[in-house]
Amino acid sequence: MKTGLLIVVSGNDTLLRTEFIRRCNLDHADTFTVNEQALLFPRSILTLLRERRTEVVAFGCIDLALQRYQFFLRLYLLFSRGSRRCLLDEHSGFSTVGLGGFLLKHVPVFLFEVFASIIVISCSFLHLFWLRIRGARR
Length: 138
Hints:
Elements: E1 3-8, H1 13-24, E2 28-33, H2 42-51, E3 56-61, H3 70-78, E4 84-89, E5 94-96, H4 99-137
Parallel strand pairs: 1-2, 1-3, 3-4
Antiparallel strand pairs: 4-5
Helix pairs in contact: 3-4
């Protein structure tokens, strides 16, 4: 009997569950619903992922292209005990998660986003500092 664990972040539970069972050829799937703020607390998510022994583990959402915190969803899936890990959405979007793809694609993108954010914040701070000095001279 092939079982799966679906954690619904956003969207229709029943629609995502039927899509999950169909895409992964499962006999049974347990479904849990969490809100996006719960994704920021790794202990609760990792406890949920580790206490369930299933072959397939997935996070479900309304639309993968618009889902926030995808980096962390993929990271959580890598720490799960399932042999197959995936992300899926209500519109038949499906993305498997593996260690190689995560390290070669998603980690560099995340590091670039962090680096770009630091540059934008630093430039904004310098610009505001310059405007403050310029305004004090007048």
